[in-house]
Every structure is written in C-alpha cells, then in structure tokens.
Amino acid sequence: MRAIITVLGKDNMGIIYNVTKIVSSYSVNILDISQTIMNNDIFAMIMLVDTAKMQGEFKDLAADLQAYGDGAGYAIHVQREDVFNAMHTI
Amino acid sequence: MTKLAHSDILETIHMVDDQHLDVRTITMGISLLDCVGDDINTVCRRVYDKITGKAANLVKCGEDIELEYGIPIVNKRISVTPISLLANPFTPDDCVKLAITLDKAAMATGVNFLGGFSALVHKGYTKGDRALIAAIPEALAQTERVCSSVNIGTTKAGMNMDAVREMGQVIKQLAEKTADRAGFGCAKLVVFCNAPEDNPFMAGAFHGVGEPETVINVGVSGPGVVKYALEKVKGADFGTVSETIKKTAFKVTRMGQLVAQEASRRLNTEFGIVDLSLAPTPAVGDSVATILEEMGLECCGTHGTTAALALLNDAVKKGGVMATSYVGGLSGAFIPVSEDAGMIAAAEKGVLTLDKLEAMTCVCSVGLDMIVVPGDTTAATVSAIIADEAAIGMINQKTTAVRLIPAPGKKVGDMVEFGGLLGSGPVQPVHQESSEEFVARGGRIPAPIHSLRN
Questions:
Q1: Which of B41, B159, B383, B414 allows an S-S link to B445, with CB 3.0 to 4.6 Å?
Q2: What is the ipTM score, two decimals?
C-alpha cells in the first residue's frame, strides 16, 4: 500500500529530518519527496511512501506525525494514496 | 513520483481542513424479516441479536477508514426493515418495546442513529402499521437514537389522507411528550411521499423490502467545497457556475464511492448506493444557503432562490453520477433549516419563509426539513402542510418529506436549540386560517394521471 504524507506550515530547519525519522522508525519506505514554498512563506512537503513492510500500526504512525506536527506548528497528514487517485483521476 | 499533481493533493487537504469536506454517513442496511414471530420478547431478542451481530464492526470499520484515508466520516448509522412489517401481531405497547430494543442495539453497536421504526401506508394500513404509528410518540419519547418515518403517498398509489390526518396528530403528541426539550422528538420523525428504500440519511432511512440481507449505503456531503469553488468564478455566467459545481461534485462523490467500496469490502457486505447529496451542517462554511447567496442573492429566500437551487441540485447530480457506479437514496441538495447556518440566518430575518421553502422543495431533494413552527399550531395545520408537500412529490414523481417541530410553548421569533448536527431554528410562522375541514375529509387522493405509464 502506498500513502502520501503532506506537511504544511512555516519553513523551519530540520523538518525533513524529523519527519523522515518518524517514518523510518516504522520501517516505511520513502519513495519520493518533493517540497515547495507556497504563497512566499508556507512550506509544503509531499512525500510518497510505501507501507508494505511497515512495522507497527498505521494509526500510530499517523498519531506520531500529528503529535510532532502539533508541537512544531505543522499540519501533517498521512493518507492512503487511493483517495487522491479517486478524486483527481478518471 | 506519482501521477498526481501536487496541486491536486493539496486541494484535497484544503477541502478537508478548511472546507468541511466529509463523508456524511456510512449506513448499514439490515433486513429484519427473519426476526418475525408472535411473541414480543422473542422478536425483541432476535432483532437485538441480528443488529448487534451484523453491525458489530461497523463503527470501528468507519473509524479505520477515516484514519487511513484522512477523510472524516461524520456518522455511522444503521437502517432496518420497516418495523411495521414485524408488528402485525403486536399492540402499540409492544411496538414501544421494539423501539427500546432498537435503541439498545444502536447503543451497543455505537451508531448515533438507527432508522426504520417505520410504516408504509400510502394505500392503506395493515394491523402492524396501525400499531406502529400509534406507538410513535411514546417510542420516540422513550428512545434516544431511534428514527421513524411514515410513507403516506406515492406517485403510483396517490395519497392516504387518513394517514396524513393521523400524522399531524402524531407529530403534535410527540412534541408534547418531548416538551421539556422543545419537541425534540419530532426531529426524529419524517413523513414521506415516494420514500426511497435505500436512503442512508436520517431521520428517514429504512431498509426497504427490495434490498439485500445487508447493504452499505453512503451519503456524501460538501456544501463548503462547492461554495469555495464558486467563490473563484465570481460574476461568471451560469454555464460556468454549473460546470464548476459539476467538477466539484464529481470529486466529492468519487471520494464517497471509494469509502463505500472499502467499507463494504471490509464488512463483507454488499455495496448499495452512493447518495449524491449536499448535506449542510450548522458549522459556519458548511451551508447550502451560502452557496445560493454566492450565486448572487443577497439572502437565501429572496426572489431567484428557487432558480439558484434548481441549478445547484441539477449540477450536483450531473457531476456526481459519473463518479459512482450506483446512485440512489435521496440524491440532491438538502435544505434543513435548523441544520444550515445560512438558512437559520435567512429564516431569522424573515426572508426565508415556509411558503418559499415549499417552492424550493419542488426543485431539490427532500422537503420541508427541520422547520420549527409555533407550539399552538394545530394538528390539522400540520396535516395540511404534510398534504401540500406530499402533493408536490406525488405529482412531480420525486421524494418529498416533512420534518416539522411544533415546539410546545414557543412563539414566532423564539429560537429553539436542538444541539449537535440538528442545530437550532427560529420559530417560523404558519398561516392562521383553518384547514380543519379539508383534513377531516379523509380517504385517498387518487394517483395522478401520469402515474399510468404502462
């Protein structure tokens, strides 16, 4: 299963490091990362990950990412890729 | 990386976080036909066991999908076979026992509403229908999560005016029995014409006799998303408005289809339908009224409102129909006054009146929904309002419904608070002239000529 992790917030040092650290602790493989700065100062990182060999529960990964995001001032979502495909492709 | 554009991914996130995009309900339909029996206690036990067995994992499944897909699923609900079909051997008191059993089953499974304390009497009453309808006031007063509906007319059968008269009385009795909560019980009772058998939305959901043993039906939402999309085409012509709504409805419905398929797979239950609806909530920014206002109306209810709603309703269907393999339920924009912040405001100003709402129901889904009327409104007037609304449904071959709350002790201008998704509503005026003699006639209004299609 593939999932998409999105991180939105103010750009700060260490964001990629901290998110990848959490993700790798669940043995989730990162397939691709891209980032952009929107509207001058909103940092948006989009990460495509493969959860096939995941150790642990999806809900715990989501909770850990959210907890980090809440503390650091980011909105972090992890969602199955299917939802985006369903909504944006025919 | 992926064939998805970043802008698409961020659009979805934005829709959920800022525009109230959600799946409004996953509703599991459960047939109770195999629970029939002559002994009320046996039937109650069978009903409880069947519901709690079939829906044991419904709420957890909904929560899991919500988490994995990042899409809120606001309600997990159950609809059951119209209980009147089980009620032939029973008294109204027995039917109340059945309602209490349904309530317990709803609590045990964790769903917030269970629909199907229902009867279909469009052509006449069975013994079970009589017992069940007589039990409605007590049953809904004694339960929290049970919803009830009565179908009093169809295009094929015409309108049962005896049932129309009785439902006016039932609504009044129910309001009195729940007077301590401003007649809240009436929010759980819908009177239908042309009731659909696969509707996932409350309070009118029931599991029709043409349905499979169990089924998953999903209702989508998204007024906030449509409103936001229209903000970007300010001043454009109606062709553009329609296209914009269609594209948005397509995306929203595709998400509903995905959730429906996933839920039915995980619950090992047939996928029934997706209901293409715009269902508002009292939250600011999740209002159908503000979509109409975004089209250029100063206030929902003013001249132009019916046309705006007609366009909206049609474009939602056109966009949604390609996004799902099976469409059903009510499918259209809902206009429940107390559940829509924009409608509440328009009604408070006196711009959105009962008569205008009736006109609006000619071109959209459902009918006169969640409207609070004065406590001294007579049963005959309530019946006459039901008759008017049912006539619109019967003649236009569409579903119409009435969910009125004659709030005891309340007068025009008072606000009535229901809480949660049911919101709050201003008490709206009704005509004072009597409909007593009209309602007293009884009998049936024959089916219209265009029902003869064979």
A1: B159
A2: 0.89
